[in-house]
Amino acid sequence: MMIYVGNLDYTVTSDELRALFEPFGTVTLAEVQVKSRTGQSRGFGLIEMPNDDEARTAIGALNSTPHHDRPLTVNESRPRRTVRDLYASGGWYGGGAG
């Protein structure tokens, strides 16, 4: 399961993010997302845990908990939406003509 972790302090590293989730089970990926030009943190990261039960336990335990004085937002990652997705589903306003 891919897990989204938001509201991260900009000083949090990928290793620190991994260490936060490892007590709950196997972590195959821990990556703080960074801006490509500057290398600065974007304030969120992704975690991949192969065992869904362990992932759900981690989400339940860590969501809304303070980390570096900021409440974490932790949930199952949803596929990223693109502009193409918005047009395919009827545009930004969600409606087809009726």
How would you explain this protein's 3D organization?
- This protein has 98 residues and is an alpha+beta fold.
- The chain has a single domain (2-88), classed as RRM (RNA recognition motif) domain (Alpha-Beta Plaits).
- Helices cover 26% and strands 28% of the residues.
- The chain has three helices and six strands, in the order E-H-E-E-H-E-E-E-H.
- It has helices at residues 14-21, 52-62, 83-88, and strands at residues 2-6, 29-34, 41-48, 66-67, 70-71, 73-76.
- The strands form two sheets. The chain has a four-stranded antiparallel sheet with strand order 2-3-1-6, covered by helices on one side. A two-stranded antiparallel sheet has the order 4-5.
- Strand 2 and strand 3 form a beta hairpin.
- The longest helix has 11 residues, at 52-62.
- It is globular and about 40 Å long.
- It starts with a strand and ends in a 10-residue tail after the last helix.
- 18% of the residues are buried.
CATH class: Alpha Beta
DSSP helix fraction: 25-40%
Number of domains: 1
* Distance between the amino and carboxyl termini: 38 Å
Q: Classify the fold: give the CATH topology.
A: Alpha-Beta Plaits
**CATH homologous superfamily title:** RRM (RNA recognition motif) domain
**What is the percentage of strand-forming residues?**
25-35%
CA radius of gyration is: 16 Å
